[in-house]
Design goal:
Length: 262
């Protein structure tokens, strides 16, 4: 075991200080099934990271190199990197995802676990780095921090409005009761996209089997969303589906648009 640990550390150190060296030592690899404890593995990576930083490597470059060679240990590498540079959380997440997009879920997971107060910033940075993984990012963020659902969904929509429908479907699974308030806040923040957001919302709710819905959405939430949409330039015609689908009373819609019922 001690011999394995020494070989592992030496191999990692050589490979990361000189990336090309990994080609000549490919026979020596880390075994994910080793009996080494998680804390010992993390400690090993911490030692390597500290060594790199002492040699004036940046934390981002160090993380990229390590994850390029050992993506299966991404969570340990990132966790150790956080210990080394707690003031570079977003940079570490970005570096890890740039090195290997497939580790996005585990990297965002460990980041939010350790820094829940930075959840929205982590989500925003992660989405900007790998928008194709937006569903994974939103899913793990909502599971870890359901109380921050509004801001998580809003950040996702604000970062990539084209992914709004995908975000809504993920939110419907993880935080269904935060959908309306999140979209309302998104309309406030992005009034120019209000019409598009309402259209996506229509496609989502009209196309959903109502019998399978588990949403606790009340008409006051719909009223607030409609009011915000109207103030952002969405026409009455584009909001009539709310009445047709039973989400809003006809009188309420008329009042919002200051119209008299016939």
């Amino acid at each position: 075991y001690m011999r394995w640990k020494l070989i592992t550390f030496t191999c990692l150190l050589v490979a990361t200080l000189n990336p090309s060296a990994i080609r000549t030592s490919s026979a020596i690899t880390l075994d994910s099934n080793t009996t080494s404890s998680e804390s010992e593995l993390k400690s090993t990576y911490r030692n390597i990271i500290d060594n790199h930083l002492n040699k004036n490597f940046s934390i981002m470059r160090t993380v990229r190199i390590l994850i390029n060679h050992y993506p299966e240990h991404a969570s340990y590498i990132v966790d150790a990197a956080f210990d080394a540079r707690e003031n570079r959380v977003k940079a570490i997440v970005v570096a890890a995802m740039q090195a290997e997009p497939a580790v996005t879920y585990s990297v965002v997971d460990i980041a939010i676990q350790r820094y829940p107060d930075l959840c929205d910033a982590i989500v925003e940075s992660a989405i900007q780095t790998e928008p194709a993984y937006i569903d994974d990012i939103i899913s793990i963020a909502l599971k870890r921090e359901p109380g921050q659902a509004d801001i998580i969904i809003r950040k996702a929509v604000a970062s990539h409005p084209d992914f709004t429908e995908s975000v809504l479907r993920t939110a419907a699974k993880e935080a269904p009761n935060s959908i309306l308030s999140s979209i309302t806040e998104s309309i406030k923040a992005l009034p120019d996209t209000a019409t598009a957001l309402v259209s996506v919302l229509k496609d989502f709710f009209v196309g959903t089997d109502k019998e399978k819905q588990n949403y606790s959405l009340n008409k006051e939430e719909w009223r607030l969303l409609t009011l915000e949409a109207k103030q952002s330039g969405v026409s009455r015609k584009e909001l009539e589906w709310l009445v047709n689908e039973g989400y809003l009373e006809k009188e309420t819609l008329a009042k919002i648009f200051d119209e008299k019922l016939n």
